[in-house]
Design a protein that fits this description.
Helix content: 10-25%
Number of strands: 24
Strand order of the largest sheet: 5-6-12-7-11-10
Distance between the termini: 9 Å
Strand content: 25-35%
Structural class: alpha+beta
Order of helices and strands: EEHEEEEEEHEEEEHEEEEEEEHEEHEEHE
Length: 400
Amino acid sequence: MQSFFGAGFLIGVFLAVLLFSPAGSFPTTLTLERSFPMNRVVELSALRARDRYRHGRFLQTVSGGVVDFPVDGSADPFTVGLYFTTVKLGTPPKEYYVQIDTGSDILWVSCNPCGDCPKSSGLGVPLTLFDVSGSSTASVVSCSDARCTSAIQTMEAGCSSQSANSQCNYSFQYGDGSGTSGYYVSDTLYFGTVVGNDMTANSSTSVVFGCSTAQTGDLTKAERAVDGIFGFGQHDLSIISQLSSRGVSPKVFSHCLKGSDNGGGILVLGEIVEPGIVYTPLVQSQPHYNLNMQSIAVNGQTLSIDPAVFATSSNSGTIVDSGTTLAYLAEGAYDPFITAITAAVSQSVQSFVTKGNQCFSTTSSVDEVFPSVTLNFQGGASMILKPEDYLLQQGSVVTL
């Protein structure tokens, strides 16, 4: 059996699971996709319970408690690679499946009516339309509301009418061509607050979120459908900011995505304290979560890459985005990286380019042939990647 691999990263890390490709070949935001067989539901529930029990011991005690969300999904792009959680909204509360996205700000869910919203999901999860009239605690956010005024200033909202009582609208376009539009509503969000090592208290508070009445692009496709997107950005209308302003939780979140077959992970509003975690600072005053990546090493040898490639500016830098399936390198970093990997395995594998991607053919175990890769960040934090973390098996052929 001869296996074929393409260069790419498939890794489980705090904040994001990403895959590397040339930066020039992708939209700025990609819709994540994922599927699990229906017969895995019980197993996933068991894994979720085990993860909650385990990471509950590592949550730092802070005033206001720590808000805990379940995480399902997988990084495997061939099984649609999506990470999502559930939120409970409205009175009576209903559950909605939403994609976890650190690259956007707003929580939004599909609302009734919505002619373009998918009616079913290939992910094996039920889809539910939020109905403002069906919740006794829901109210439409008006243009005169201070929260709408704040959102208008940052282009997160708009008002089509000068009337103070008109609804506060939004319209978002994602880099893959998909989009959503609708209006903001205020309603009750229900969540679990970790108050001790093994105790979770049920809590609730009023939050503002988007009510989507129109969707376009991949958001309309049933095979990858969820109820909405859970933005974890820094805007005042992000849920993390809203809960922090109410004293419910600190303005910090911890997000770990598992790259294993079972997927899943951790998502809490609060800090995880566990031995062995290393830290690198965020770049301040940026709209996204930017990190200072300083170098890349292959087999312990630092690659010759112009430091300017990693510099943060209005259109460059290293961004952590859990809503993007792949990780991308600028051409100035991608080319030296591919050259170094190809040179390291030139005596053991056949290399070739197909559809613009560097591929390799080998009959050996990738761990025996391919080198380790290290991503180095400011503050001495390093991420070590094994071959299976940056290679994707593209297919196989039988040879005689």
